[in-house]
Design a protein that fits this description.
single chain, Rossmann fold
């Protein structure tokens, strides 16, 4: 379907059901056929997959996923979209639509619905809640094969950047601890209705069977990481001492930094994932 046809189809659904995009849910509906196909291709969806889609909206991407996957579970928070999805997806018998907040949903129960199938997450995420959703998926303990999401370009770049970049932070480290990130598609604002004020990108996270670094207590490491970036312009020793969740004496941090051969004035933004893991174990 050409771009203009997909856009017309989207607008027809919007008019038919008198839909108004909800700002509180960050709704921007995709209107570009090529982008829809690109997301499915980037996710590598095949007949052995159970795809969990977050935020199906009008169901345009859901249809594409269902054509390739064994099963699709679509989680939609907006109640007004449920009758729309039921009508638009009526011709498919491999789609299950759930009206729920993904942050309050038992994803493990959903992932276990079809034993033997690879579970992949695909989503056009609301920009205001991208980080909680992505980190929640990564930390869930569920063995997703991959997570392919549309996010704000700036956030996608943050996920795959390294030390020394202004975009480097706790999200970068969490994503890179659990997965190998790759931006696979850039999407301009005109591919959506209504048009967002920023550019978007599709990023695929291929989850590791085993994290690339070993650390005795991952939760403790991420507590240290979070504290070090709460005051990113301060030295690591000051940031960890001042943060109420860590309260690590400056002398102790400096002693560990000395053992690691690092400058005592180093900031958290300069440490690699491997160095955060080493620091945590020594602590």
């Amino acid at each position: 379907m050409p771009y203009s046809d997909q856009k017309n189809a989207t607008m027809n659904i919007v008019r038919k059901h008198n839909i108004r995009a909800q700002k509180k849910y960050g709704q921007n509906f995709l209107t570009d056929e090529g982008v829809l196909d690109g997301i499915v291709e980037a996710a590598g969806v095949c007949g052995e997959d159970h795809v969990v889609e977050i935020g199906p909206g009008l169901g345009s991407l859901t249809k594409k996923l269902a054509e390739q996957a064994s099963h699709v579970t679509a989680i939609e928070i907006d109640k007004q979209m449920i009758p729309v999805l039921e009508e638009e997806l009526a011709g498919f018998d491999n789609i299950n639509v759930i009206c729920a907040d993904v942050l309050k949903t038992d994803l493990k129960a959903i992932a276990d619905t079809y034993p033997g199938e690879c579970v992949k997450v695909v989503a056009n995420l609301p920009y205001y809640i991208t980080t909680p959703i992505v980190t929640g998926l990564l930390e869930s303990g569920i063995h997703f094969k991959s997570i392919t999401v549309m996010v704000q370009t700036e956030v996608a770049e943050r996920m795959q950047t390294g030390p020394g970049s202004k975009d480097y932070g706790a999200l970068s480290l969490a994503v890179q601890y659990y997965s190998r990130p790759e931006i696979v598609l850039d999407v301009p604002p005109e591919c959506f209705f209504p048009m967002p004020g920023v550019g978007s990108s599709v990023i695929r996270l291929d989850l590791y069977e085993k994290p690339p670094v070993e650390v005795k207590d991952p939760a403790k490491m991420f507590g240290i990481i979070k504290a070090s970036f709460m005051q990113r312009r301060k030295t690591l020793s000051n940031a960890l001492q001042n943060n109420p969740d860590t309260k690590i004496p400056r002398e102790k941090t400096e002693s560990i930094l000395t053992r690691m051969g690092l400058d005592l004035r180093v900031r958290g933004e300069a440490l690699t994932l491997e160095q955060f893991a080493e620091f945590t174990d020594l602590l």
